[in-house]
Each structure stands twice: as structure tokens, then as C-alpha cells.
Amino acid sequence: MTERPSRWLSGFAALTYAFLFAPIVILVIFSFNDSRRVFIWQGFTLDWYPALLQNDRLLDAVWITLQVAALAVVGATLLGSLLGLGLARLRFRGSGGVQTLLLLPMVTPEIVVGISLLVFFSQLFGWNGSMGQIALAHITFCISYVAITVRARAASLDPAREEAARDLGASAVGTFRHVTLPLLAPAIAAGAMLAFALSVDDLIITSFQAGVGSTTLPIAIYSSIKFGVTPQINAISSIVIALVGLALLISWRVGAFRGPSARPVDADAEEGSA
Predict the structure, then answer these.
(1) Torsion angle of C-alpha atoms 267, 268, 270, 274, degrees rounded to 10
(2) What is the pTM of this model?
(3) What is the number of domains present in the chain?
(4) Separation between Cα atoms, residue 124 and residue 136, nearest integer Å
(5) Same domain membership, residue 206 and residue 117
(6) Tens of pLDDT along 199-244?
(7) Distance (Å, whole) CA 195 – CA 74
(8) Residue 79 sits in which domain range?
(9) 128 and 95, same structural domain?
């Protein structure tokens, strides 16, 4: 009786994975196509990958994208981590409302966020598009993701560990540095990676903030495909996919390496009481 539902579920899962990953596989395959007509296979070639090094427009867009992402990661990780830790530890009137406000950038349509930030920057500072403006816009919507991730981790920490460090003579700064921060490090790293991915991927909000000389990779790709998808677009998309896969592999390996040494707090408490 259980085999038939299991087969149905397996088949449905296979179809779901095929629906998700088939376009990516096709894109990667045709990045090696020896033809400028993207969807007509005429042979295997690697020429499109070296050709990317001669495309100054795409290279400039990649460099600007990485700079913006780096600024967004630093700003969002710092502010979001402090905000998440504060919301987890402090109880004040209106804290529930603040936590609800954290969700607004995540559920508000990006076009609304983009227009509101454009009006804010242009009216208050007189900015008309720059890399710094893009970075600030990315920090604005990435803070929520980092804060929620860190808050969830901070709320699950056992306060007994910090109390034990204080009882042993550690200062507040020393306790935070040697106890709290290492325990929060996985959540902070996860929030930073999420902020980086969101910043690199964003198109709608960025398009409202970009100006002359601040074209990011998503904008450059979107502008290029208006005239048709080229093999170079497939090639650079394949490189991005490969880098994302490499990052996932590294994070999985790091997690697998640290996994056996990770011990739940309850187990430590039980051993201490024994």
C-alpha cells in the first residue's frame, strides 16, 4: 500500500527538479555552442569564454557588481547583526512592532522599494545615480534578511554559557568576543552570504538607482538580451552558476567538517550535571 504513493511522490519530485533545473542545464550546454544563433547546435567550442575577457562592458559591470556587493555585505552584516542581537536580547515597548517592520522590505514589491529609494535619495541628497547610491539601496533591503537570521540564532542560545563566562571573571566585552560571537558566527556568515547573493542578483531596485558609469551585471545582461540572447550571455551565466555551486559545495563541506564536533546545549548541560 505504501509503494504506490512513494512512487507517485518520487515521480512528482523528479518532475519538479526537472522543471527547476532543465533551463539551467540547457543554458550551460548552449554556452559551448559554436554558433551565434543560440538555440541551433552547430558544434562544441570554448571560444565564448575567452571572448568574455575582451568584452569591456561586461567586465566593468562585473567589477561594479562586486564592489556594490562587498559594500552591501559589510553594511548589512554589521547593522543587521547588531539589530538582530538587540531584538533577541532586549525587551522594550514596541519591540513587536519593530520585528514586524523587519518583514516589510521582504514583502514589499521591489518596484515600490526602488521608486521610494530613488525619491528619497534624489530629494534629500540630490543624487542622480551612483555606485554608492546602489550600495545604500542594497544595504537597506539586505538588513532585514541578516537581522532575522541572527535574531533566530541569538534567541536559541543558552544564556548559561555567557553566565558561566561572567562567573569565571570574563568582562562583558570578553564574554561577547569569546562566547557569544563564536556562537553567532554561523548565522552571521549565513546572513552575509544571503546579502551577497541578493545584492549580486538584484535588478529592479538597482535599475532605479543606477546612473552613468554604475551599470551592474544584471542590468548589463538585461540590456543585452533585449537584442537577443548571445552565447556570451550564456557563458557568463554559466560562470555565475559554477561560482554559486562552488560556494554551496564549500559551505556543505565546512558544515560536514564541523558537524561531528557540534554538540547540542542540552547534552552539555546533562554532562555537566552528571
Answers:
(1) 140
(2) 0.80
(3) 2
(4) 14
(5) yes
(6) 998 999 999 998 888 889 999 888 887 777 778 888 888 888 888 7
(7) 9
(8) 62-215
(9) yes
